[in-house]
Design brief:
about 240 residues, alpha/beta, 10 strands
């Protein structure tokens, strides 16, 4: 067991972030705003938007062997951690699909069996917890989905959240300090992140007091810069 004095815990030493949005919403492009050197695992073939950036190294997931390919990537990240500042897995939603499809190839029906879903849930929690132990910043991406929530009074509403299996999505969001929904302002066309939960959006920010952030400002956790403006808050809260 490791004991850490809270006075020695600096808020901006390392961060773990999960961002989500609709396909093509700008998740992968957000990586360009990370400082330092970044190692990215491309699970869905969208890393071309980062081509030409010298501080980003891209590895490709083998879609026919997703789980062993993820292990291989982790081992590389662990071995070469001193060479990078951040690691990105892009994206969990597609990795989930590939993992289950591979299991389906070995069944009579060609579809994953019930037991496979439970195995994947455990695998995903263990995988994320393992990556979070790396001495690196870690970012996960996912597509977005919606779920219906009923309040104690019986009121129903739809909420945006990451497209991860319902059985495990709350757990994943719980162990990740920042969960942010990327959206585009209808008014200005700017991309920005919602960092505060509402009835319609699951989001959280346990690293600083920001409720919204422009895409270019997301990773300025604990920064002394004046990056939280009333204009940004109004733009994305609407």
């Amino acid at each position: 067991m490791e004991l850490i004095n809270s006075e020695d815990m600096k808020i901006n030493d390392l961060w773990h972030v999960l961002i989500y949005s609709k396909p093509g919403g700008g998740k992968t492009s957000t990586v360009r705003y990370m400082e330092g050197k970044t190692l990215l695992l491309d699970c869905d073939g969208t890393s071309q938007v980062l081509s030409g950036l010298p501080n980003i190294t891209v590895a490709k997931l083998n879609p026919r062997n997703a789980a062993p390919s993820m292990v291989e990537f982790y081992e590389y990240a662990k071995e070469h951690a001193a060479e990078y500042d951040s690691v990105v897995i892009d994206n969990l939603s597609h990795y989930q699909k590939l993992w289950l499809m591979e299991k389906g190839k070995h069944t009579k029906s060609g579809q994953p069996e019930l037991q496979h879903y439970g195995i994947f849930d455990t695998h995903l929690i263990e995988m994320i917890s393992t990556f979070h132990r790396l001495p690196l910043n870690v970012m996960w991406t996912a597509w977005e989905s919606t779920r219906q929530i009923q309040t104690e009074s019986g009121q129903l509403y739809n909420q945006f959240l990451p497209d991860i299996r319902n059985k495990v999505v709350n757990h994943i969001m719980g162990i990740t300090p920042v969960v942010a929904r990327l959206t585009t302002s209808v008014k200005t066309g700017n991309r920005g992140f919602i960092l505060k939960e509402s009835d319609g959006v699951f989001a959280k920010n346990q690293l600083d007091d920001r409720e919204f952030a422009l895409q270019s400002d997301l990773f300025k956790f604990g920064s002394d810069e004046d990056i939280q403006t009333e204009e940004v808050s109004t733009e994305f809260s609407q």
